Amino acid sequence: MAKHFAWYDDWKSAILECSRCGWNGTFQEGAVEHYAELMDSSCPACAWPDAPMLAIVSFPTIQESEHNWSRLSESERQHVTARKQFLQQWEATRLKVPDQLPDLEGLDLTIIWDLVEAGTGCMTVLRHGAVELWREPAVYEGYMRFREVVDILRQKYGVRVADVVPTPGSELYLYGDKLTGSDFVQTTRGALKEGRGRVG
Q: Could you tell me the sign of the dihedral formed by the alpha carbons of 164, 186, 198, 152, in that order?
């Protein structure tokens, strides 16, 4: 069974051993994969994809980092502070409920999902024609957020929402390094059209 480490545990020097082939080494000497909230290390000697997973390391939360503040470098402290400020701004300004959106006329609403630079960051901007509906801090690899926003748009405008179209300038930030990000967005847009067809 894979060992589980918190970020501030001594996982870098811990010696891991494969129960199948007997290989042993550190986490970073194994086959390491990175994900949004954690990374894992599998046996590098056993054949992929059946190589046993040896250990999982969870990336630190802001609270965990603040609890271990004295162990952080200056650059790490700056990163944690910036992340905390972003999350506070995000929570204060993100679209949460349909009532935050303006009323719109028309039976076929095509809404544009755009990205604009604002100060040191970027903002996601929703527009219908010349009307700006909403803006909030942009989330890198925000394709999951795209679906959340589409759901809120549907709650507000119903089947009148014909499509939500990302601009070319927003796509790099929206999809990030996730190869499936574009497919996820296209599936969400397809569900909008299917919903209109069923009602019509």
A: negative
For 45, 49, 128, the CA distances from 28, given in Å and listed in that order, are: 14, 18, 49
Residues 122 and 189 in one domain: yes
pLDDT tens for each residue of 91-127: 888 999 999 999 999 999 999 999 998 877 799 999 9
Q: Where are the beta strands (DSSP E) in 14-72?
A: 16-17, 24-25, 31-34, 38-42, 53-58
Domain of residue 124 covers 95-199
On the 0-12 / 13-18 / 19+ scale of CB atoms within 10 A, 123 is middle
d(CA 26, CA 23): 10
Give the DSSP letter of residue 14: P
Classify residue 81: in a domain, yes or no: no
